[in-house]
Design goal:
The complex is a heterodimer of chains A (about 110) and B (about 110).
Chain A (H helix, E strand, L loop, with lengths): L4 E3 L2 E5 L4 E6 L7 E7 L6 E6 L5 E4 L2 E6 L4 E6 L8 E8 L7 E3 L3 E6 L1
Parallel strand pairs in A: 2-11
Antiparallel strand pairs in A: 1-3, 3-8, 4-5, 4-9, 6-7, 7-8, 9-10, 9-11
Chain B lengths: L3 E3 L3 E4 L5 E7 L5 E8 L3 E10 L2 E4 L6 E7 L2 E6 L8 E8 L8 E2 L3 E5 L1
Parallel strand pairs in B: 2-11
Antiparallel strand pairs in B: 1-3, 3-8, 4-5, 4-9, 5-6, 7-8, 9-10, 9-11
Classes of the chains: A mainly beta (about 110), B mainly beta (about 110).
Chain lengths: ~110, ~110
């Protein structure tokens, strides 16, 4: 993988269901991975910053895992609520000083009441 | 509370006009960024600055320039606005190490007619 890819692009989930989505990034060049939550007309809000292989982070009903060897991170939401509706972005930074910060194109999550 | 402020939230400009988008942060951050967001393309980096008077091109710098005369302020300049620059522009800042959280403004919606 040469780029940062997020899948799926959009997701519709029933309230109360759990869901997860993926961020894939170049495994050969890794320094940090960030997850952001972006609600319409608001600033993106930082959820997690992960730097170590095997990292697991949790914030309320949202958690994330990181696998730097295979180049992916999962974001999980347990018991989805309407307020979870947002676009979830991941950001990748490579290790070399020349590496740019690259955002994925996001997963748009909609929760059906 | 940390703050990244984009002074103009909604602008309508004519083709050929010079446009200034201003961004101010109050966190003494070294890094500042300008992104644009277009449907299906995610956040794309236009320029970033890692110190006063220092700047580097991002992925899509054509048609844009930037100015960072003071640490807290990073301006994006469209020398001669064109309709394909109609977009949402997002400013961000962070401390120098990329393991640190990036903080975002609320975005500036620019329409060029």
């Amino acid at each position: 993988i040469l780029n940062v890819e997020q899948s799926p692009q959009s997701l519709h989930v029933q309230e109360g269901d759990s869901t997860n989505f993926t961020c894939s990034f170049p495994s050969s060049n890794f320094y940090a991975l960030h997850w952001y939550r972006w609600e319409t007309a608001k600033s993106p809000e930082a959820l997690f910053v992960m730097t170590l292989n095997g990292d697991e982070k949790k914030k309320g009903r949202i958690s994330a895992t990181l696998n730097t060897k295979e180049g992916y991170s999962y974001l999980y939401i347990k018991g989805s609520q309407p307020e979870d509706s947002a676009t979830y972005l991941c950001l990748h930074k490579g290790h070399s000083s020349a590496s740019k910060i690259i955002f994925g194109s996001g997963t748009r999550l909609s929760i059906r009441p | 509370d940390v703050k990244v402020t984009q002074s103009s939230r909604y602008l309508v400009k004519r083709t050929g006009e010079k446009v200034f988008l201003e961004c101010v942060q109050d966190m003494d951050h070294e890094n500042m960024f300008w992104y644009r967001q277009d449907p299906g393309l995610g956040l794309r980096l236009i320029y970033f600055s890692y110190d006063v008077k220092m700047k580097e091109k991002g992925d899509i710098p054509e048609g844009y320039s930037v100015s960072r005369e003071k640490k807290e302020r990073f301006s994006l300049i469209l020398e001669s606005a064109s309709t394909n620059q109609t977009s949402m522009y997002l400013c961000a800042s962070s401390l120098v190490a990329v393991g640190n959280t990036i903080y975002f403004g609320e975005g500036s919606w620019l329409t060029v007619v």
